[in-house]
Design a protein that fits this description.
By secondary structure, this protein is mostly beta strands. It contains 1 helix and 60 strands. The protein starts with 9 loop residues before the first strand and ends in a 5-residue tail after the last strand.
Length: 674
């Protein structure tokens, strides 16, 4: 746990002036909505906003690569995006550079012969540049943009011995392509799409003759998308050949590729089955050896002598090619998610998502652990995940950590937690989180001093929790989840008293994930969405969480799927992605009102009922819905929360709303007149 951060609070009063144009919701009959736009009024004067402090402060990272004793580390969800040069010998950050675009750097690779570092960014929307180069002979000079590949995100990079750079990624409108950057001319070329059904490519490796392209369905899987796909691209003939080892074809995707002498090292990301590792002859791609590894990922290959090392869910694996067994190194510290692994000084250097670098012996013993913040990395406010509040604390999720804000005494500490707390609730003073990726439910009780720990695990394919809700009738925590690689999703339940947990896979159908959940009188209502561009979405299912059976369902007709659900009295409120409001009379099982809130809700949203109204937050605005008239009022226009994976809000015991304004945690004390 880190030292408390010194934070200040600032309270402001909303003037209540101004408004936002939108197509307002009409009141009355089923499927009714006004066609003409009107003003959403703003909250009354006197609504107060108290700034608690930055949501979560840390140095967050997403990549690391070592060259000549210097570890180059790419930032994650920080502003501005940047790269550090960390000298392992001196345990200090000696240089840094910032990039003009992107929110995270997942792709780093070095050209050791020419002393160059290449970086590729992840971004929310296509930008002018997503490829950068840093001259390692002059670290005082900034990295420079060298252009962009057509895919939105760059997930991996590789340099061939002749200096040509290759890039893969995804996030565009079609399947990911293989891209080439020629440093002699500065040209970037699309070499083709080898697998039209792939949704993401995260691995590339290159020789002067061949480029190896690894893809699959890491995100948006199911519904006929590709599984693990490994292709060899002949640079002279400009042709692709499928060389996927048979043992890997059922896994969701190829996760890592590395050239090691006369062989290609390859791994998969597992899901239902454990990950696989293979060595493939560069001279004959049909000659290979594959083994089953441990856990659901294997990445960041490093070779020491006859042994191959790589990172997995629990730490570091060792495999000796020619043997069937893969061994987990007995590392005595929690390394979290590993984003860099290299051989150095007859040992290993590990870059941890917790924000530190560890030096290990080859047998797993720890030589040293270096906190990057203490070494000189810029600690700053990160974009955030879920939020929870109760018993005097507010919690904000980030990458590899959760900030605990003390609402009575002030200050904050960061709790180490693997992955990301996508959403959370405080129940009886205890924090319960839905942890991505495939981490299940974790708990933290501030009264005991015990570290945050897992209390429930679920099938690893059900990897992305999205929404949490406390069912006070059944005394169950409910978690809505998505299966990234398989399609569909699930509902989890957890009983804090007994520790018992259950899961229902695909309670809506085999294509719709469960994006939202709320419970009323012991009935859970599930809001459906679909990661595919076509297929069913927007279904709401009434579900018995004890009997694990559907009670009834209703089709909302929402074109973009359900983003959030809330309930007040007899009404269930559903808000779709991009702002379609649907109000359902639960006893009648009928839609009684629809409205267009697109001017307030440009994308995702979250809702909670409190103080006799329904509060909603989007990426841009905090608003409330009157549960009798369905009138929508803007409470905080332009709140513009610094969220990574969609906005969140939660309420304390008094009904005050906690959310983000920018990257700052705020308390909004709004007392609507009734």
């Amino acid at each position: 746990m880190s030292e408390p951060l010194k934070l200040t609070r600032r309270t402001v009063l909303l003037a209540g002036a101004g408004g936002l144009l939108a197509a307002a919701a009409g009141v009355g009959s089923a499927q009714s909505a006004q066609a003409s736009p009107t003003l959403f009024p703003t909250g009354r004067a006197g609504t107060t906003i108290t700034e608690i402090g930055p949501g979560i402060m840390q140095y967050s990272l997403m990549s690391g690569v070592l060259l000549d004793g210097i570890c180059y580390i790419g930032s994650r969800n920080l502003e501005p995006t940047g790269i550090l040069a960390f000298d392992v010998a001196s345990a200090a950050v000696t240089h840094s550079t910032t990039l003009a675009t992107g929110h995270s750097i997942q792709a780093l690779t070095v050209d050791p012969a020419r002393k160059l570092l290449y970086a590729g960014i992840l971004q929310k929307a296509p930008s002018a540049n997503n490829l950068y180069r840093w001259d390692l002979t002059d670290l005082a000079a900034p990295a420079v943009a060298i252009g962009r590949i057509g895919d939105r995100d760059v997930r991996d990079l590789a340099v061939a011995p002749d200096g040509t750079l290759f890039a893969v990624g995804g996030g565009g409108t079609g399947a990911p392509a293989l891209w080439q950057y020629d440093p002699s001319t500065g040209s970037i070329t699309n070499l083709g799409v080898p697998d039209a059904k792939a949704t993401l490519a995260r691995a590339v490796a290159a020789t002067d003759q061949t480029v190896f392209f690894g893809a699959g369905s890491t995100l948006g899987g199911g519904s006929g998308t590709s599984r693990a796909a490994l292709y060899a691209f002949d640079r002279r003939a400009a042709t692709f050949t499928d060389i996927t080892p048979t043992e890997m074809v059922n896994d969701p995707s190829i996760r890592e590729l590395t050239i090691a002498g006369d062989r290609l090292l390859a791994s998969t990301a597992g899901s239902v089955e454990p990950t696989k590792i293979a060595e493939i002859s560069l001279a004959d791609h049909t000659s290979y050896r594959a083994v089953t590894a441990i856990g659901t990922t294997a990445k960041n290959f490093a070779v020491a002598g006859d042994d191959v090392y790589c990172a997995n869910d629990a730490g570091v694996l060792r495999w000796t090619p020619g043997e069937d067994a893969v061994h987990q190194l007995p590392v005595p510290v929690d390394l979290g998610e590993i984003w860099g692994l290299d051989v150095h000084d007859d040992g290993l250097v590990v870059v941890s998502g917790y924000g530190f670098v560890a030096a290990l012996e080859l047998d797993g013993a720890v030589r040293a652990e270096y906190d990057l913040g203490e070494a000189g990395a810029p600690v700053s406010a990160q974009t955030c995940m879920g939020i929870a509040v109760g018993a005097g604390f507010a919690y904000v999720g980030g990458n590899g950590g959760i900030a605990r804000h003390d609402l009575r005494r002030g200050g904050a500490v960061n709790l180490r937690a693997p992955g990301e707390a996508k959403d959370a609730e405080v129940i009886g003073g205890v924090l319960y989180t839905g942890q991505y990726n495939a981490q299940g439910i974790w708990a933290y009780d501030p009264r005991t001093g015990e570290s945050i720990h897992r209390v429930a695990a679920f099938p690893s394919a059900q990897n992305r929790p999205l929404d949490t809700h406390w069912d006070d009738r059944n005394r169950l925590l409910l978690v809505a989840a998505q299966a990234d690689t398989e399609g569909g999703g699930s509902l989890w339940t957890f009983d804090p008293r007994t520790g018992a947990s259950t899961h229902a896979i695909n309670p809506i159908d085999d294509m719709q994930l469960v994006r939202a959940v709320v419970a009323v009188d012991g009935v859970a209502y599930l809001g459906g969405d679909n990661a595919q561009k076509t297929g069913p979405r927007g279904t709401i299912v009434a579900w018995d969480p004890l009997a694990h059976r559907e009670l009834w369902r209703i089709e909302t007709g929402a074109p973009h799927g359900i983003a959030a659900l809330a309930a007040h009295g007899r009404y269930l409120f559903a808000l779709s992605i991009k702002g379609a409001l649907v109000v359902i009379d639960r006893p009648r099982r009928a839609i009684v009102h629809t409205g267009d809130l697109a001017a307030l809700v440009p994308g995702f949203a979250a809702m909670k009922a409190a103080r006799g109204v329904v509060y909603g937050v989007s990426d841009t605005n905090l608003f409330r819905i009157d549960p009798r008239t369905f009138e929508v009022t803007t409470v905080v226009p332009g709140i513009n929360g610094g969220w990574y994976s969609g906005p969140h809000l939660n309420v304390d015991e008094d009904g005050a709303v906690f959310t983000l304004r920018g990257r700052t945690l705020v308390k909004v004390d709004d007392r609507p007149r009734r």
